[in-house]
Amino acid sequence: RKLAARIHVGEQVRLQVPAGMRIVSIESDPEDDTLCGKGNLLREKAARVGPGETLQFRISSDNRIGFDIQQVEAK
């Protein structure tokens, strides 16, 4: 596992990765001193990326389930 980006509310990131099975994950950031940096967060989503394919994911927060990663339709 390798850190690819640190993002905040409203920000986006684009990553170019080789085709194949990939794991998209979010977790607590020990360098973040806000509430989001506290706790023991780890969410993962497996995705198969085809050659030249674009996948989009959204990170959401819900008071019932906490943080989640959803794949959304590419625009």
Walk me through the structure.
The protein is mostly beta strands and 75 residues long. The chain has no helices and 4 strands. The protein has strands at residues 20-27, 42-49, 56-62, 66-72. The strands form 2 sheets. The protein has a two-stranded antiparallel ribbon with strand order 1-2. The radius of gyration is 13 Å and the shape is globular. The mean pLDDT is 89.
Task: Please supply descriptive tags for the structure shown above.
globular, two-stranded antiparallel ribbon, mainly beta, single chain, 75 residues
The secondary-structure element order is EEEE
How large is the radius of gyration? 13 Å
Strand content: 35-45%
Strand order of the largest sheet: 1-2
Q: Based on helices, strands and strand pairing, what is the structural class?
A: mainly beta
Q: What portion of residues is helical?
A: under 10%
The 3D shape can be described as globular
Chain-averaged pLDDT = 89
